[in-house]
UniProtKB/TrEMBL annotation:
Record-given protein name: TRAP-type C4-dicarboxylate transport system, substrate-binding protein
Keyword vocabulary terms for this entry: Periplasm, Signal
GO biological process per UniProt: transmembrane transport
UniProt lineage: Bacteria, Pseudomonadati, Pseudomonadota, Alphaproteobacteria, Rhodobacterales
InterPro entries for this protein: DctP_fam (IPR018389), TRAP_DctP_sf (IPR038404)
Organism: Paracoccus chinensis
Length: 323
């Protein structure tokens, strides 16, 4: 009997059979966010399908640190999985910043198709240099502008402190509008907005509603001026240690869930917009023309920064909301 048990253990090691293990997954968004909800459901399916061999523990709200630290932890193998914004990647490689360009796409479904295209395929090829294994692309809601005071024109944004991520593309947009981009961690935004430390923020409808930012707003510019892409990734170092059969299950579930996130936001956008329109806070629809020449100037600037940007513009132009 002892010989049989020892033989079975040795065979498991030789064949690379997986052992049960806990894995950690980080994201900067709070538990109420769709990314966190999706990650919870996905982790449950992965645990079931791997018969407990892969148990993913979730750490939302930036519990494991800002994304600069998250990326470092993934590179060393100290952290296993993450839903990453483009902030830290774009700060290291301009090509990752182009997906945040203003007025690439008009809506969530079109953005989802763009994230399945040639540009993201090219970005996937760059991920090993960051120590990452790409597992899918998704997004959150389209970008809007929430302000303490009403404005009538884009020129009135001049001098206003607008909360952004510490993210080169966002900083460039608001600098071009002569505003004062003000990077700030998400947990600090509510108090800063309520007390007037910032005059506004670039954010989506989901965050505006779920975090009650509208309670201190004088107006909401329903601009839909950009998508907010997300990369689902694994630590390349830790990925190599996972058994091939479990890798296949994980990859399949991440691909399915990132696609589901895009589909979910297509409906959630309208729900959150309806909620906000019922608050009494003016929700004003604006378009690319409202922002004036700043958008074209931004595109020209990023054509010089990234050799992929011109192709992305062409790829986006080939898509229509009716496709």
């Amino acid at each position: 009997m002892k010989i049989s048990v020892l033989f079975g253990a040795a065979l498991a090691l030789l064949t690379g059979a997986a052992q049960a293990a806990d894995y950690r997954m980080s994201m900067i968004v709070p538990p109420s966010h769709q990314w966190a909800k999706s990650a919870t459901e996905m982790a449950g399916r992965i645990k079931d399908r791997t018969e407990g061999r892969v148990n993913i523990l979730l750490f939302p709200s930036g519990q494991l640190g800002p994304e600069a630290q998250i990326l470092q932890q993934m590179q060393t193998g100290a952290l296993d999985f993450a839903f990453l914004t483009m902030g830290e990647l774009a700060n290291r490689d301009n090509d990752f910043g182009i997906l945040a360009a203003p007025y690439l796409v008009p809506d969530i479904p079109t953005a989802g198709r763009l994230l399945e295209g040639q540009t993201t395929a090219a970005l996937d090829e760059k991920l090993p240099a960051f120590g990452l294994k790409g597992l899918g692309w998704a997004l959150s809601g389209m970008r809007q502008v929430v302000l303490r005071d009403k404005v009538g024109t884009a020129a009135e944004l001049s001098g206003k402190k607008i909360r952004t991520l510490p993210y080169a593309p966002e900083l460039a947009l608001w600098t071009g509008l002569k505003a004062v981009p003000t990077p700030m961690p998400l947990p600090a935004v509510y108090d800063a907005f309520a007390t007037g430390q910032i005059d506004g923020m670039q954010i989506d409808l989901e965050g505006t509603w779920n975090s009650n930012y509208y309670a201190n707003a004088g107006m909401i510019l329903n601009s839909d001026h950009g998508m907010f892409p997300m990369l689902a990734a694994a630590s390349g170092r830790k990925w190599a240690q996972i058994a091939p059969g479990d890798q296949a299950i994980i990859a399949e579930e991440f691909a399915a869930e990132t696609a589901h996130i895009v589909e979910a936001y297509a409906g959630l956008e309208q729900e959150f917009l309806a909620h906000l329109q019922g608050t009494g806070v003016p929700v004003v629809k604006v378009n690319r023309a409202w922002f004036g020449p700043a958008i074209e100037a931004y595109h020209d600037q990023w054509k010089a920064k990234s050799p992929l940007f011109e192709g992305l513009l062409q790829e986006a132009a080939s898509l229509t909301p009716q496709d």
